[in-house]
Amino acid sequence: MNEIQMTFYSLLNLFDRSLWVKLLSELERVFDQKLSHLDVNDPMRKKVSDLETAADYICSIGEEESSRRLFGKFGKSKIELSISIFKEAAPFPNSMSIYFPEKVTGDKEGLCMLRNAFEESNRCLKPFYSICDSMDTIASKRKATGYAVDLQAELIGVFWLTYFGKAYVDYFEESKFLDIPSRQIEGLDGSMMDLGESPLSIAVARNQVEALLGKESFVDPSLGYDKPVGKNALRFDQLR
């Protein structure tokens, strides 16, 4: 069962086959598993022969289509991914999620793999915001209204691993990041938070970091109303 989730939100044009060849190649290296399935249906039935074919398949959107949603799997590792990409990343950002079995958190090698996958994906996708934690922890931030989170009104939260692009580092004020376990990812100008040894062993509480940055910018599951766009989070036109 997949219990660890990482998700990346990007405004890049992701209909770029060279980007996918590079990203999937890096993930195969980190996972030591080949991408074995890729499909627009889940469960996945389409087997891919190589990464060039996979990149072509991801980017093969029809003239009448506005978006694509795909699902993939890496060999026998039980690591799966989902991809949602739009011709125009407004009002929805492009996203990619990777799902891992919980057992990968049981040793240092697995935790190193998670961090490497997070960093490599951030380098390739250049997201404005990305997160990694247990699926239960991320799901606990579900809004009381039941509607999907509008990332132009609020962000989901701070998690075990969280990356903020430069625009958000400036928005929250760079000086605040000095009081949080964080570092830069080589090649990127944002900041990656790393709050503990594993998703199950957090040294710094997630809600404490949210309070430091400004808790109004993150989902409060108890609220029964939607926050206004642009008041507590950056609009997408401010992130480009």
Structure, described:
With 240 residues, this protein is α+β, with helices and mostly antiparallel strands. 28% of the residues lie in helices and 25% in strands. The chain contains seven helices and eleven strands. A hairpin with a 7-residue loop joins strand 8 and strand 9. Helix 1 (17-31) crosses helix 2 (51-59) and helix 1 runs antiparallel to helix 3. It is globular. The N and C termini lie far apart (37 Å). The mean pLDDT is 94.
Strands of the biggest beta sheet: in what spatial order? 2-3-4-5-1-6-7-9-8
Spatial gap, N to C terminus: 37 Å
Compute the number of helices. 7
Which spans have pLDDT < 50 for at least 5 consecutive residues? none
Order of helices and strands: EHEHEEEHEHEHEEEEHH
What share of the residues does DSSP label as strand, in percent? Answer: 15-25%
Biggest sheet, in brief? 9 strands, antiparallel
In round numbers, the mean pLDDT is: 94
Shape field? globular
Output the radius of gyration: 17 Å
Q: Helical proportion?
A: 25-40%
Q: Supply the helix-strand structural class.
A: alpha+beta
